[in-house]
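To: structure subgroup
Subject: Chain for Friday's discussion

All,

I'm putting the inputs and outputs inline so they're searchable in the archive.
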Amino acid sequence: MLKLYKKEQKDTYYAEYWIDGEQAIIHYGKIGHIGQTEKIENYLKSYKDEASFQAEFVQRFHSQGFIQISEEKFWILIQYPMKSLKGTKRDVWLKDRVTKILNSDLGWKGLGHVDGYDMGKTSNPQKQFALNIFCVVVDEAKGIKAIKSALRNNTCDFTNVKIAARPFSDDIEYTLKFSAKKKDLDFYV
């Protein structure tokens, strides 16, 4: 898989490809929106190998101003409260469901992906446990908007979620960006 991006005034566009068996899939559009998809069946009939397919993909999109970005990303942390250190079956189910939904939604909108999770005690001096799901996105505001929409529309316990963010390359504290419970503005990782 390879992702390229292009910034134009206020908008950012993405182009990516991945290989699925003998099929090459190209997906491109404006970040935050589901883009267009091209499928090339039996791509190895037209290309010597994946490297030659990738070279043509890069040439096609570089000529339109697309480049790889590495540092212009953000961490988004989605947090749910838990009642115990190891969590319950429901917490594991929620982790799996949210991960699947966000990987799909963020991916198809060119925004990013789920990078991992942890479950356990937070840094809160009070005894507090949480499920943390970590996402990497290329646009903080659009990423948060897409995450909120996906969680709200897919039965993902939206009434208990907190969402925080920080720049990808900075090792600073997360800043709370959304709390479903408006009076609960304390945030601990």
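Points worth raising on Friday:
The chain has a mean pLDDT of 95.
The chain has two domains: 2-62, 74-179.

D.
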